[in-house]
Amino acid sequence: MKNSRIDQCYNIEELHQLARRRLPSPFYYYLEGGSDDEYSKKNNIDAFDRYELIPRCLNDVSNVDTSTTALGINIELPVIIAPTGFSRMFHYQGEEAVARAAAKAGTIYSLSSAGSSTIENIASTTSGPKMFQLYMLNDREKSLGLINRARDAGYDTMCVAADLPILGNREDLLRVGLPPATKLTFSSLLSIVAHPKWFIRYIMDPPNPMANFFEGKIKHEDMGKFMPDSTFSWNDLGEIKKRWQGKFAVKGLMSVADAKMAVDAGADYIILSNHGGRQLDGVPSTIDMITEFVDAVGDKAEIIVDSGFRRGTHVLKALALGASACMIGRPYLYGLAAGGEAGVDRVLQMFREEIERGMMLLGISKLSQLDRSFIRKRD
């Protein structure tokens, strides 16, 4: 079988295809799907091709340094692990494996409040830098309680997800029977049984997809009970910041006007994101919005960019446009599904090697040397 091992995969797409073979179809579709017609999901990736790098020649690049500062933390790689839900559905090692891989790579791990590992488990797994992403769900008291737990567990940064007043229309999930549908389809069950390694691990230790909200195991039909709080508004950010009393990020913004409001509300960091194309379809790619965000609020808040990154050159393009770092979600989940912790290690290794090579070919030895003179947008 082509590329049957992670060490035979040489780019993110090859890990993607290996992950697809190893996952039962319903969980692959959960990982891969976007909303509606998936325009935004595809555009996130395609948009990078509209930007061209301008290399400088005959500079000493014998020693390149990929380190930078993001979220107020010195990191060895400008690639932050984005918060994603239900990681143990893709591999039994789950969020703990990803957190360990992030620490080894010298970067930041982000835990979603919809994760399948608890705040406390991740804190005991790694001493590396950590950010917690808060979803404000319809049980507001329980949601706010996660802030105290993250603070007590020693997380470095609190991140509020601002783009989830309702779940996006992810039709693939309805087709396979994952929430908001309440029952797996017969073909989904057949696909699960047809992946015995995954199935055996699942039976031995079933993942809890809402570990931070439920002490025990949650039933499939109960997952839809926790829905986004559509009353959550800018007025509520002050309470969250007051509870947290630390470094504070707002994620999911696509409007410069909202970025300015986030800064006014006390945000130290703005995470430019369209949720990987899983919420509102038909929005711009995030790379197309970087310069607008940087020019509007870059002197007041750090701009980090999420969505669509598949190559080290993608990261370099974002940094040249003014972002301080990028976030990856699906790429590390491909690695996790393909090979557990070793697969995530492989993803971060790929990004590191591609960034180093790209820096040398651009003629720079430090990321701080990047600016807009290194990039142009095609007509």
Which SSEs are present, and which pair or pack?
Blueprint: H1 12-22, H2 25-32, H3 39-46, E1 51-53, E2 68-70, E3 73-75, E4 79-81, H4 94-105, E5 109-112, H5 119-125, E6 130-134, H6 140-152, E7 157-161, H7 171-176, H8 186-193, H9 196-204, H10 237-244, E8 247-253, H11 256-264, E9 269-272, H12 290-297, E10 302-306, H13 312-320, E11 325-328, H14 330-362, E12 375-377
Parallel strand pairs: 4-11, 5-6, 6-7, 7-8, 8-9, 9-10, 10-11
Antiparallel strand pairs: 1-12, 2-3
Helix pairs in contact: 1-14, 4-14, 11-12, 13-14
Brief descriptors of the model:
TIM Barrel, 379 residues, eight-stranded parallel β-sheet, 12 strands, alpha/beta, two-stranded antiparallel ribbon
What can you see in these coordinates?
The chain is of the alpha/beta class and 379 residues long. It has a single domain, classed as Aldolase class I (TIM Barrel). It has helices at residues 12-22, 25-32, 39-46, 94-105, 119-125, 140-152, 171-176, 186-193, 196-204, 237-244, 256-264, 290-297, 312-320, 330-362, and strands at 51-53, 68-70, 73-75, 79-81, 109-112, 130-134, 157-161, 247-253, 269-272, 302-306, 325-328, 375-377. The strands form 3 sheets. It has an 8-stranded parallel beta sheet with strand order 4-11-10-9-8-7-6-5. Helix 6 links the parallel strand 6 (130-134) and strand 7 (157-161). Helix 1 runs antiparallel to helix 14 (330-362), helix 4 packs parallel to helix 14 and helix 13 crosses helix 14.
How many H/I helical runs?
14
End-to-end separation in angstroms reads 41 Å
Helix content: 25-40%
Largest sheet: 8 strands, parallel
- The stretches of 5 or more residues where confidence is low (pLDDT under 50) are none
SS strand fraction: 5-15%
Task: Count structural domains.
Answer: 1
CATH topology: TIM Barrel
How many β-strand stretches?
12
Rounded to an integer in angstroms, the radius of gyration calculated over CA atoms is 20 Å
Mean residue pLDDT = 94
Order of helices and strands: HHHEEEEHEHEHEHHHHEHEHEHEHE
At the fourth CATH level, what is the homologous superfamily? Aldolase class I
CATH class, named Alpha Beta
CATH architecture: Alpha-Beta Barrel
Strand order in the sheet with the most strands: 4-11-10-9-8-7-6-5
Task: Indicate the structural class.
Answer: alpha/beta
Shape: globular
